[in-house]
Amino acid sequence: KELDGSFYDGTELILDNNILPEEHLDNKSKLSELIEKYSIAISTASNISKESVLVYKFSSIGEFEHRLLGVQEGKFKYNGDERFIDYPESLILEALSIKKARNQFDLKNINILFPDIRNEKNFLDLKKIISLNGIKRSINFKFYCEISIPSILFDLEHFDNNEVDGFVLNYEKYKKLITFRSNIREGDHKIIINIIKKISEISKKKKLD
């Protein structure tokens, strides 16, 4: 089903501030400054969506974003979900910003989306990282898993409603990766429609959004 609300992409937060957190992990004052800036930006977006849900999508940084940020080529090995596994501090930074927006500014319409998840284990690892820092899923704080990497499809059956509240399909990204081409042909859409049906069936069976 379609989301009754809006998305806020953490990637834009990083690009807007022109700072990649993992390059400044030894600078506590800089990280504190980023948390303050992020929480204000998230709070502003939340207030705009106050009558509906705001889903905050954790940042997803790859080679393209590295170039925009002026990061040395090849400096960081992983992207997507494995970036946060390699640099959990960057995930914690964003999570604490969300926590501050929800608690200090009393904005309870914020939920979160984990992007570019490759498999169930990675999703659970990221959940554990933020849980250890006091950010836990609840009835009014939902955790969603993005479907954008083809490999996640093989793990969907393993998820249940004790782990996640639902799936969000990144249609544009998924169709390019699953068909391995930028210019999608008519027949490709049929493949994606079948995948959407499979995701829907699994979600219904497991009582997920």
Topology:
Layout: E1 5-9, H1 10-17, H2 28-48, E2 53-57, H3 63-69, H4 81-86, H5 88-103, E3 110-114, H6 120-131, E4 143-147, E5 166-169, H7 171-179, H8 186-205
Parallel strand pairs: 1-2, 2-3, 3-4, 4-5
Fraction in beta strands: 5-15%
Structural class: alpha/beta
Cross-sheet strand order for the largest sheet: 1-2-3-4-5
Shape: globular
Would you count the extended β strands for me? 5
H/E element sequence = EHHEHHHEHEEHH
> What gap, in angstroms, lies between the N and C termini?
7 Å
Q: What count of helical segments does DSSP give? A: 8
Helix content: 40-55%
The largest pleated sheet is described as: 5 strands, parallel
What is the CA-atom radius of gyration, in angstroms?
A: 17 Å
Q: Round the mean pLDDT to the nearest integer and report it.
A: 92
Q: Stretches where pLDDT falls below 50 for ≥5 residues?
A: none
Characterize the structure shown.
There is one protein chain. The chain has 209 residues and is α/β, with parallel strands linked by helices. Helices cover 47% and strands 11% of the residues. The protein has a five-stranded parallel sheet with strand order 1-2-3-4-5. Helix 6 (120-131) links the parallel strand 3 and strand 4. Helix 2 packs across helix 5. The longest helix has 21 residues, at 28-48. It is globular and about 50 Å long. The chain starts with a strand and ends with a helix.
